[in-house]
Amino acid sequence: MAAEPEQHATAPAEHGAPSEIVYVSWGGTGRAATVRQAIERASESGRGLVYLAILDDSTFGDIDEPLLDLARDELSWLLDAQLELTKSQTRAGDVPVRVLVRAGDVADEVVKVVTAVGQAEVLVGAPVPVAGDESVTDLVELLARRVGVPVSVIEPA
Fold first, then answer.
1. What pTM, to 2 d.p., does this model score?
2. Would you put residue 143 in left (φ > 0), alpha (ψ -120 to 50) or beta?
3. For the chain, which domains are there?
């Protein structure tokens, strides 16, 4: 099966080159192949990578805060290990990476992180979970409008 073309949307106002790549994962989108591509893109462009893992409301919204805190801690540890392993496998050891684990609405959390990071490029790993009759293109365009930076979906290679 041929890979689908990369979905992307550019926000209306871009100012300068993005300083970091924000890789967004929720609902099982943090696949190794897409994480590898995000790290390679960061390495090739000389930028850092922020791995934003979101415990989304639709899946985790009814979990008590103490249990959610445990899930955040465990996920952060696992993702740190995944990033270090992927960096060593791709010879991208010089790429600065950090993991942020947030809980809440996906778009809201992406906006908060991109606002804190400043100029960034947002990558979403496929397959992308969408609600109801929403399409991946709709989601990408919504995120681009909300964050004001380029947003792309990267497919597993």
1. 0.82
2. alpha
3. 20-154 (3.40.50.620)
